[in-house]
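In full, the data.
>
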Amino acid sequence: MKPSENLHDDPVLRAVGEHIARTERHIDPGSLSGRILANSKATHRSDWFLNPGGRMARWGLGLGMAGIAATILLAFLLAPSAEARSESAIREAAEHFRLPLERCYLAEVRPEGEAPADDTLPTRSMKVVAADNQFRVELTRGIIRWSWGRESDGTVWIASGPHRGLRIGTDEQGPGLSWMAELYSLRPETLLTQMLGNCRLREDPRQAANHPRVIHAEPRLMARHAWLRSADVELDAETKAVRKLTLRRTGRRGDGIVVVSFTLIESRPVEHAKFRLEGNISEPFQIFDKDHHPDRRREILSRWLGPQAEHWLKSSPAKHSRGD
């Protein structure tokens, strides 16, 4: 087996693991222990009537105690493990994301070790609205509000004003923009499914009853998703839905850790138009892309992002061939 192969992709091992998990879920230790106790009591009564002198009664008492001990042992052995309970909770949470809804999150991004943003740092927090594989980010900088997002085909758009927008195709996106788009492309159902196959799961034992359950996920040694260092999934105690998702992931250059948290604000029917550029600007509007004033598009990006604009938009190869 090559070092890069994932042991969890082995169909035989995966089938065995799934069979064991299904068996554990369908075993009811309570009913099994009840049958054992009933059998031990029946044996005790029949022995007592067979030998009123007491010798068989004592033997029946011993069988009864052995039955109780066996019940306790079986309940311990057959009860789902802590990891199995966590897997069940994550699997149930993933089902909630099959509903055709868009979900609005309060998102925060910060380097690991830095204190979470507070009210004095409003630019560090933003609103992310996600549905399937598309999203939009709404930001506020002082009195200026703007938004950007990614469509289902990977195209990134930026609403840089009420009547003006930029569109950047997948083949034009620089490394910085590609990384940012991946950072905010929250796909909870896919992520939770990957956790089930590639992570060790454990529940925080400090959580009290009727409080949110917190399940910690850490990639297994040979998991392929090296970008994820760990994750904390906070589940609603009543609805079992995800309330907050905190990811520790590698930075853009792979030399640091970035903490990204998504706190659910609300779920609502999908407003499809809002996931496209035209749904975030008003007529009459101008849209700049590679076919319509590309230089103007780069100028606007540079004004907003400064030197970082070069990381968002690749250099145009046409400029290097004008001397021909």
